[in-house]
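Re: the 347-residue chain
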Amino acid sequence: MSEKAIRVGFVGAGANTRLHHIPKLRAQPGVVLMGVANRSVESGDLVAKEFDIPKVYSSWRELIAAPDVDAICIGTWPYMHCELTLAALAAGKHVLCEARMAMNAAEGRRMLEASRKASNLVAQLVPAPHTLETDPTLKTLLAEGFVGDVVAVELQAGQGKFVDTTTPLHWRQDISLSGHNILNMGIWYEAMSRWLGHAKRLTAFTRVTVPKRKDADGKMQDVKVPDHADILTELGNGAIAHLRFSSVTALAPSPEVWIYGTEGTIRLEADAKRLSGARKGESALKEISIPKEKRIGWRVEEEFVNAIRGREKITHTTFEDGVRYMEFTDAVTRSATSGQAVDVKPL
């Protein structure tokens, strides 16, 4: 498409789309915002007025079929990701899809297969953002042998909250909307796999602390998505990783990762975007300096546009990466349901 205008339509202008994708795509040279299709025309009107988007569509099918739209940004909940992606690729549109690739790995594989058949089109998932600034330095440290051979990993990502039985059912707690996705497990696994590779086998224990919550209509609904998960997994290099994701561990520390090796230890503090470490013979961790040029951070929309223009390839995040984290997500569900250790199916 070289330097021709890239005309973008938005299906599902949720919080992340309004915060990041709409303003940051508009800021890219040669990108034109064409239209939006939300859950209702009324909500679409509000988004269009806020961001000066010229057209509001009554259905996502009309937007995807529009001949003056080149790319679709999907900001819906996971239950629509597969259907929208397949339709957009079939219509010859590039796709930027929100994280939590799909409801399950089977849907993710359908999306990947469609993207491979439409190899002339760009298909990108929004990446896990919380470690983007630390990833390059962390990967370099591991590659250069700072910790030696990795033997154990501890990852905890709690939200530090007390249990609240009165909070209405959130879409992330609604299995019909979120599928096998649990809390922020998938995006943390995606980040971890950038540094350490993928899991081979796991055992998972999960819990639903509040079994029923009121939906938007005030009706009590069963909650089937866990609000706490403890996972013990063997990584491809033989290291053992203990992963905890929770929205009910009140006053828990901020999310962090510890990587233990034969020659050293690294600690990642996600909220502070800080690394610290120590090598064999040292008695305490010291902060590891991260060069400014390596704090790359969020550049999702720039990467998407550059990929369409043929200037770079998608790295954050490919559909292949998405299927891998959905395979992990499925494995957690299988293990928690069966009470057994399970293999993580390879792509």
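The two ends are 31 Å apart (CA to CA).
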